[in-house]
Amino acid sequence: MNAMSANWIAIGTLDDIPRRGARCVKNGAMTIAVFRTADDRVFALEDKCPHRNGPLSQGIVHDGCVTCPLHNWVISLETGEAQGADEGRVMTVPVKVESERIFVSLEAAGAKAA
Amino acid sequence: MSKQKLVIIGNGMAPGRMLEHLFEKSPEAYEVTIFNAEPRVNYDRIMLSPVLSGEKSYEEIVIHGDGWYIDNGITLYKGHKVVAIDRSAKTVTSEHGEVAAYDKLVIATGSNPFIIPVPGKDLPGVLTYRDLDDVEAMLLAAQSREKAVVIGGGLLGLEAAAGLRERGMDVTVLHIMPTLMERQLDPAAGYLLQRALEQRGIKVMCKADTKAIVGNGRVGGVELGDGTIVPASLVIMAVGIRPNAGLAKEAGLEVNRGIVVDGAMRTSDPDILSLGECAEVKGQVYGLVAPLYEMARVAAGHLAGEAGAEFIHVDTPTKLKVTGIDLYSLGDFAESDDREEIVLRDATAGIYKRVVLKDNRIVGTVLYGETSDGAWFNDLKKKQTDISEMRETLIFGQGYQGAEPLDPMAAVAALPDDAEICGCNGVCKGKITGTITEKGLTTLDAVRAHTKASNSCGTCTGLVEKLMALTLGDAYNPAAIQPMCGCTDLGHDEVRRLIKAKGLKSIPAVMQELEWKTSCGCAKCRPALNYYLVADWPDEYADDYQSRFINERVHANIQKDGTYSVVPRMWGGVTSSKELRAIADVVDKFAIPTVKVTGGQRIDMLGIRKEDLPAVWADLGKAGFVSGQAYAKGLRTVKTCVGSDWCRFGTQDSTGLGIRIEKFMWGSWTPAKVKMAVSGCPRNCAEATCKDVGVVCVDSGFEIHFAGAAGLDIKGTEVLGMVRTEDEALEHIVALTQMYREQGRYLERIYKWAKRIGYDEVRRQIMEDDGKRKAYFDRFVFSQKFAQVDPWSERVSGKDKHEFMPMATLSLEAAE
Questions:
Q1: SS3 B776
Q2: In this complex, is the C-beta atom of B347 within 8 Å of any C-beta atom belonging to chain A?
Q3: How much is the pLDDT for A2?
Q4: Which of B44, B308, B609, B790 is the most exposed place for a label (fewest CB within 10 A)?
């Protein structure tokens, strides 16, 4: 992750997110889903399934993936890519955890979205 | 033509199989009477070990249920021991004084366990391992979780030890020989087996001779020859069996070790046959099922008047039925000068294979850790194939005999038609594939029913399934054995059974113990496991919300745009001006875009933002509403008509009963959604006959229906039965639902579950078996203590607050 040039914004602590769960971060019109896996890794994706825009933050988190609540697409938390036979990719947002505090970088996210 | 009288003493597997053959050959020839010393029907004794370990229940190992005896016109005396045979009068007499005359008599008295004649052998707490009574006594003793000693390190003793260990006892096996199962295994395999048992916490003492069983009034321990005392509160003697030939001897029949019979199973009296473990054929007595079934085939042929059926000795492979230990042994493997052996060892993988050859032909095989080539070796041995051509690669198995290693499917395809697949029942490949084609069989159960393959010990199930796949090609739909998901090879039923049997009470415990292939499951198995654990351990299991689908996690229904819909309960579809006003106020206050009346007689508010849900629920709660659970795999609605309160045709208070059912059952989780209805008369305005459970009221009472569908499939209900009072109706419906909760597969609606297990079976358990029904009812009531909590008011009071609020809202500047 390109931490040097990123502008990191604190969004909360690890405890705010249940294990194998997600929370939302509102950023204007855009919603970011921040996930915490069973082994305490943290990932952030735009909260929008590439299939029909389902809110990924509401899905079931398993291993390194989330299953969309609308039509069961499985999305990799790390790459944002749809798994299995489905094709599509959701925008990933750079995220880091430093002593339990979680930061996201929106510049990189914006750049990727563009 | 008048029927001859056939009397059978003993109701074990051998005479049961003999009758099956006999009814097939000449169904009308005999009027059959059976005396069974045990008070039950014919069950699969090979499966006692799985019953002991908890992997199967008694019901699952019954071979012939009561219905089979009735259908075949058999008189079965349960719990009647025959005490005398009068050969001149041709009658037998039971201990209760029942006398039966015979034209032909079959003695199938089986065997008795051998009791070592040491002091203390009669102390309470000393058991044998022979029948279901023994298993039940062991299960009772196992509740203590104390120390058990099993005397005997043979097949039965080790299965008993493994079962008792599974049940939580501290188990020691005493074996008089230097290595375990020395008659079936060579010392190397015996050692590997001992190590595997020790790894599961079973202590093994070889060269241990029992001198006495000690204890004051009951068992306290076992004293060995060297004076050591092994403490125990339970002692199982499993050192061998002796043919039970006493009755035959008293009747003056020729008896040696067993009842002496010729190759056609005739005793020294031509009108008396004997078969099973009590019979001695050509100087041999038998204990494994395959030769006993062969005797059954021969005896049936003789009784049917066929000439020429002759019992022929064949070596039977031995397999140990302890989950996780793969062991296969066949034939003779003693060393001698004219014999050679080929051995393969893989210590890391725990594999040991040994093939013993004489004149380039296999005479014996021991396989440990990897037994899939057992059938192939058996086939080579049986046919006395000269193996010199493949000597170099023989030990690697069939897969290595071609130019390239074959896949397991190809290995099965390559087996000749006369290769034996099921050792217990002596079924060869050609019989299985032929029957599949001829009868158009598509399920494992059907193949078992028609061919008996994999119907006894079940270790060849995998082979039979491969044959089905080969024979049927794409038409083979292994739905019955489909794994739950990609994370496991186990099916739903298997997982449910093991959750109970192994006492697994959390998702990580299930995944660890049942060897899940993923670290954290997937969106298919986790909700299923969560349901099974909630249903099986209502008081102990902590519901894992992260394993619930979003709707059940936030108690509302997610919509395509990520908003939610909210449906409050309207008991029995009845509402009031106060409730309607409260709903109207909520709709206005939160600008809810759509209000819709549902098919289940209540009101749905759609398009609510997730953040607003707790506030919406708070307002609804003030008006007395609770969650309608319109999102749940659980009880949804009980639809009613107005019944005798208003309707001129109404026969009963259908509205009142519907409300009563809904108030009793709300909050319960079920495998899939459950919708009910109560109609006040047969005009059926509440459409009860297409629901999961429905009631149609009539003048004389309540007709209960079940297993309807009006969704993906359309199906009218089946009638469960008729009851007289509301109380009875409630009890039956609750019991039915609990039965479904305990047996259904996740997402399997009642109509699919009931079809799978059989409508008659449901009727039998709910309508006819008062004890079962009451027990189901009680278990449902118990689980409701933990389930009937309104999830909305919990969340209004702050539970899972994080679900409904963003973690952070970033200012626009920060995003720049």
A1: helix
A2: no
A3: 46
A4: B308
* Residues 6 or more apart in contact with residue B594 via CB below 8 angstroms: B605, B606, B607
* Site of tokens 């290995």: B411
Amino acid at B488: T
CB A34, CB A42: distance < 8 Å: yes
Q: Which of B545, B546, B815 sits opposite A27 (nearest CB)?
A: B815
Spell out the alpha helix ranges (H) of B181-241. Answer: 187-199
Return the pLDDT at B336. 74
Task: Sort out which chain A residues have CB atoms less than 8 A from B551's CB and list them.
Answer: 69
B807 contacts in A (CB within 8 Å)?
11-12, 16-17, 23-25, 34
Give the tens place of pLDDT for each residue, B190-210: 888 888 899 889 999 998 999
A58 contacts in B (CB within 8 Å)?
Answer: 550, 554, 558, 562
The per-residue pLDDT for B266 is 94
Nearest CA in chain B to A14: B807
Residue-by-residue DSSP string for B434-461:
HHHHHHT--SHHHHHHHH-TTSSS-TTH
pLDDT tens profile B303-325: 998 877 889 888 888 877 777 78
Question: How many Cβ pairs closer than 8 A exist between chain A and B?
Answer: 94
Residue ranges of A 39-58 with Cβ closer than 8 A to chain B: 39, 52-55, 58
Measured CA distances, B762 to B732, B751, B756, B767, B769 (Å): 11, 11, 11, 8, 10
**Look-up of token digits 């071979």:** B63
pTM over 0.90: no
Helix (H) or strand (E) segment spanning residue A102: strand A101-105
How far is CA B173 from each of CA A56, B138, B151, rounded to the nearest angstrom? 55, 15, 6
Residue of B511, B801, B807 for testing the chain A interface, max A β-carbons within 10 Å: B807
Give the CA angle between residues B458, B26, B427 to the nearest 5°.
25
Q: Does B527 touch chain A (CB under 8 A)?
A: yes
Residue B479 has pLDDT above 60, yes or no: no
B603-608/B594-597 β-pairing? antiparallel
d(CA B696, CA B650): 11
The answer, yes or no, to whether residue B459 has pLDDT greater than 80, is no
In chain B, which residues have their Cβ closer than 8 Å to the Cβ of A59? 523, 550
Q: From CA B102, how far away is CA B31, in angstroms rounded? A: 10
Model confidence pLDDT, tens digit, residues B99-120: 999 999 999 999 999 899 999 9
> Given this model, what pLDDT does residue A112 score?
43
